[in-house]
């Protein structure tokens, strides 16, 4: 997920203007859950500072620290003394719907959430016999099932006995799936709980499809000011103290955060999220993108199918290309995104001069300065200064 995780843990990356973890928390709260334990580690201060004790949501949040990333089983073990006899474990970087959480919570014994997928490659696969889990295989070369482990569990205290007998995997991790296998070997039945709505992000560009799905389920709201002459079509959310200036043309679903200045005469297209304190100026077109808080795209720019971090500032005429001339899939780094249309992933505090062009699949780290007139592609390291043509 780099460069987006240089400054924040993955669960704090925003989709539709809220961190992934908050989206998950809200679904849990709507499902009736009121007590939470957050197992934190990497850059945990950002999570603690944002969520506090949970009182903002009328819930209670406790924190435990996993100092070394030694696996999910060791993370769960930390909570042994403070959880009840039945408790849910969720990966903090995925989003489940309220209804799926309710069904999982209704299980009376150990259960694992699963979803049937078309392409099981690279996933943990669940093999089932007579409705119960027979085997759990991590990333098999030849999957025997299309049921993927969704990373959500209902546990009883028996899980801790299995964790105590769990050895490190070849990856050097204490895997919770191995603990579950120990339970199966001991004769404990583990049921499958299908989930219908499971949003998970493995690569930065997958934030865009997740953002689109969340936005499509929201309702229009305006807590700001829309000047006469602005046109808004379809679903649009405008945050507190934001202004949509005359001549702006917005086609939803679009969300605009608090204290934003939009327009005049800009074009914001569907599946776009613009974070708090952002500025979108005249003759700017934005499509299917995530613009994080405090970023400014003041004038004469095009941003398509792109994720932009916090506090970026683009000079006039900055343009992001999102389609190859040969119409082949776009690669980002060494990975085929599977997308024909994809722009760039841009970290925090990036500044471009006037008339900068970014090629499809460009990956730019935090605190990068791009001089005027540059054509940029490939991967740019954090803190770099780009002074000329930079292409892979």
From TrEMBL:
Keywords: Acyltransferase, Multifunctional enzyme, Nucleotidyltransferase, Transferase. GO terms for molecular function: glucosamine-1-phosphate N-acetyltransferase activity; UDP-N-acetylglucosamine diphosphorylase activity. CDD domains: LbH_G1P_TT_C_like (cd05636), NTP_transferase (cd04181). Residues 250-359 form the Mannose-1-phosphate guanyltransferase C-terminal domain. It catalyses: alpha-D-glucosamine 1-phosphate + acetyl-CoA = N-acetyl-alpha-D-glucosamine 1-phosphate + CoA + H(+); N-acetyl-alpha-D-glucosamine 1-phosphate + UTP + H(+) = UDP-N-acetyl-alpha-D-glucosamine + diphosphate. Its EC number is 2.3.1.157, 2.7.7.23. This is Bifunctional UDP-N-acetylglucosamine pyrophosphorylase / Glucosamine-1-phosphate N-acetyltransferase.
């Amino acid at each position: 997920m780099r460069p987006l995780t240089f400054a924040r843990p993955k669960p704090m990356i925003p989709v539709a203007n809220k961190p992934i973890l908050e989206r998950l928390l809200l679904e849990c709260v709507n499902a009736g859950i009121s007590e939470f334990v957050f197992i934190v580690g990497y850059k945990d201060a950002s999570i603690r500072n944002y969520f506090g004790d949970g009182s903002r949501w009328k819930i209670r949040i406790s924190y435990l620290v996993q100092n070394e990333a030694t696996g999910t089983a060791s993370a769960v073990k930390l909570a042994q003394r403070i959880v009840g006899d039945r408790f849910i474990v969720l990966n903090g970087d995925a989003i489940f719907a309220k209804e799926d959480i309710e069904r999982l919570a209704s299980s009376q014994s150990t259960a694992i959430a699963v979803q049937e997928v078309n392409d099981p490659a690279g996933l943990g696969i669940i093999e089932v016999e007579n409705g119960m889990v027979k085997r759990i295989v991590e990333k098999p070369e030849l999957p025997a099932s299309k049921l993927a482990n969704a990373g959500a569990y209902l546990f009883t205290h028996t899980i801790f006995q299995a964790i105590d007998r769990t050895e490190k995997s070849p990856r050097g991790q204490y895997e919770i799936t191995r603990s579950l296998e120990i339970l199966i070997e001991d004769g404990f039945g583990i049921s499958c709980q299908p989930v219908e709505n499971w949003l998970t992000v493995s690569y930065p560009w997958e934030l865009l499809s997740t953002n689109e799905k969340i936005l499509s389920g929201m309702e229009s709201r305006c807590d700001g000011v829309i000047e006469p002459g602005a046109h808004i079509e379809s679903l649009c959310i405008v945050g507190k103290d934001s202004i949509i200036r005359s001549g702006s043309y917005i086609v939803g679903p679009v969300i605009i955060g608090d204290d934003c200045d939009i327009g005049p005469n800009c074009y914001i297209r569907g599946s776009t999220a613009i974070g708090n304190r952002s500025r979108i100026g005249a003759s700017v077109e934005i499509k299917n993108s995530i613009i994080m808080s405090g970023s400014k795209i003041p004038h004469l720019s095009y941003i398509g199918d792109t994720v932009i971090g916090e506090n970026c500032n683009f000079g006039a005429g900055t343009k992001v290309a999102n389609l190859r001339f040969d119409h082949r899939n776009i690669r980002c780094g060494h990975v085929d995104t599977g997308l024909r249309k994809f722009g760039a992933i841009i970290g925090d505090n990036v500044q471009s001069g006037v008339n900068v062009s970014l090629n499809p699949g460009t990956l730019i780290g935090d605190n990068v300065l791009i001089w005027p007139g540059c054509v940029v592609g490939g991967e740019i390291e954090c803190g770099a200064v780009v002074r000329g043509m930079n292409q892979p």
